[in-house]
Specification:
The chain is an alpha/beta fold. Helix content is 44%, strand content 16%. The chain has a domain of 217 residues: Rossmann fold. The strands form four sheets. A six-stranded mixed beta sheet has the order 4-5-15-10-11-14, with helices on both faces. Strands 9-6-7-8-16 form a five-stranded parallel beta sheet, sandwiched between helices.
């Protein structure tokens, strides 16, 4: 199994190299050279078994099945539900898939725990050390900090937008006490953090100098690991049952994982609605074919305050007929002017992918949090509320609707209490979070300043 770049100017690499590299040398994202066909998950098959089969298919000869089974067993031992990503029925023909049973109460744990095990295993075997840089809009940073804290072969630097993540999200990043985890609060928004990370990866001399790698959703291992819970949802609801997924979307990695699952034969069809907040660039992109960077608005769902999501590039590569030159042309135009109009040769196929997008206002998000509590007796986080609101507005269908619940309500206690009047305590396993010492440093929105800090890690 080989991996190629979406921009067409990087040599094919194996699974391990693609994962350790993060971004391709030409600035593109890695995708499989061919889509492996994988047997549907069995209704009684364990999550670890399904994950082992899927990741083994993506790994090819780069890792043995036994190695991957060991990684998965260790990764999911820390989750507090035996199903890892259980389904809960919350309405007629409608289900919520809870992705927040990991150590930092967010869906990012599902993939990040696997990635940390993968890096630790491979780097020890090769006698190497790497520097991981991670941009986060809230949850990725905490998941990475929990997964890599104390790792012997990795230094982790987390870039988050200063005062643009919830206090609990920040605590999961900044309280590990691990000497190999460093937190940088950037004076900017998430798109600024992501741009700095991409610019560092574009400097190939710098990449070599510090042994740079990335675990954002640009990392193929994240996508591969997240495709597993789509497969288990299909198995749980029946292999012949049509499903449609509603995915609260920021960087679009979670939604793209569903597309990957479908391409590999793990779903009975494919339909994904990307639910976005008032930062509706993704919705406009699907509607008009215009990719445009706009300043991110602050919303109750801050992890989704993103302009153009990185993982759209992988989808664009597919709709462009895997033409790397065409994809590179679009992103070069976007980089120059902050806007790119997709050619009709891409726009047409984009409409046939099974993707769509719908936006929700701040007021609608808050009203949905209240309504969901009244209907079910359960508190949901504002990101999940964006998804349940969109699901509520979908036309009736024979397909079962599955909403991805991306984070526990306790990650946003201030917002939840302000909107619903209810306090939401952290689960017992996180009781000591607020008592831990918090360590982070504020830094300018400046590439040179961040590079200097990375060198000093």
């Amino acid at each position: 199994m080989q991996y190629i770049s979406t921009r067409g100017r990087a040599a094919p690499v194996d699974f391990v190299t693609a994962c350790l590299s993060g971004l391709a040398p030409d600035g593109g994202l890695f995708v499989p050279e061919v889509w492996p066909q994988i047997e549907l998950a069995g209704v009684n098959e364990s999550y670890v078994s399904v994950a082992t089969r899927i990741l083994s298919a993506f790994a090819g000869d780069a890792m043995s099945r036994d190695e991957i089974a060991g990684l998965c067993e260790r990764a999911y031992a820390s989750f507090d539900h035996h199903s890892v990503t259980p389904l809960v029925q919350d309405g007629p023909n409608r289900f919520r898939m809870d992705l927040h049973h990991g150590p930092t109460l967010a869906f990012k744990d599902v993939a990040m725990q696997v990635i940390a095990q993968l890096y630790d295993h491979v780097l020890k075997a090769r006698g190497r050390r790497m520097t991981i840089v991670c941009a986060t809009s809230g949850d990725t940073g905490g998941a990475a900090a929990a997964a890599f804290a104390g790792a012997s072969q990795v230094d982790l630097l987390i870039l988050h937008p200063h005062e643009r993540v919830s206090p609990v999200q920040r605590l999961f990043m900044t309280t590990t006490g691990a000497s190999n985890v460093h937190n940088l609060a950037v004076d900017g928004d998430f798109d600024d953090c992501q741009s700095i990370v991409k610019a560092m990866f574009a400097d190939r001399d710098f990449v070599s100098e510090v042994g740079l790698s990335g675990v954002n959703s640009i990392n193929w291992a994240r996508i591969a690991a997240q495709s597993v819970y789509y497969a288990t949802a299909q198995a749980a609801l029946g292999p012949d049952r049509a499903l449609r997924f509603v995915v609260p979307s920021g960087n679009m990695g979670d939604a793209l994982a569903g597309y990957v699952a479908a391409r590999c034969g793990l779903l009975n069809g494919f339909e994904v609605m990307c639910a976005v907040n008032e930062n509706r660039s993704l919705a406009e992109l699907f509607e008009s074919g215009v990719m445009r960077r706009t300043p991110a608005k602050a919303t109750p769902s801050p992890a989704m305050d993103i302009s153009v999501p990185s993982n759209f590039e992988r989808l664009l590569f597919e709709v462009a007929g895997r033409d790397g030159d065409a994809v590179r042309g679009v992103y070069d135009q976007y980089k120059q002017s902050g806007e790119a109009v997709l050619p009709q040769t891409m726009r047409g196929p984009l409409g046939c992918t099974g993707f769509a997008s719908q936006s929700v206002t701040n007021a609608e998000t808050e009203a949905e949090m209240i309504r969901y509590l009244e209907e079910t007796g359960e508190l949901i986080c504002p990101h999940t509320a964006v998804g349940t609101k969109v699901a509520r507005d979908l036309p009736e269908s024979d397909a079962a609707t599955v909403i991805l619940a991306t984070a526990h309500a306790a990650k946003f206690p201030e917002t939840v209490e302000a909107v619903t009047g209810r306090k939401v305590p952290l689960p017992e396993r996180c009781d000591d979070l607020k008592a831990r010492g918090e360590v982070f440093e504020q830094i300018a929105n400046d590439l040179a300043a961040v590079k200097a800090r990375v060198r000093g890690a």
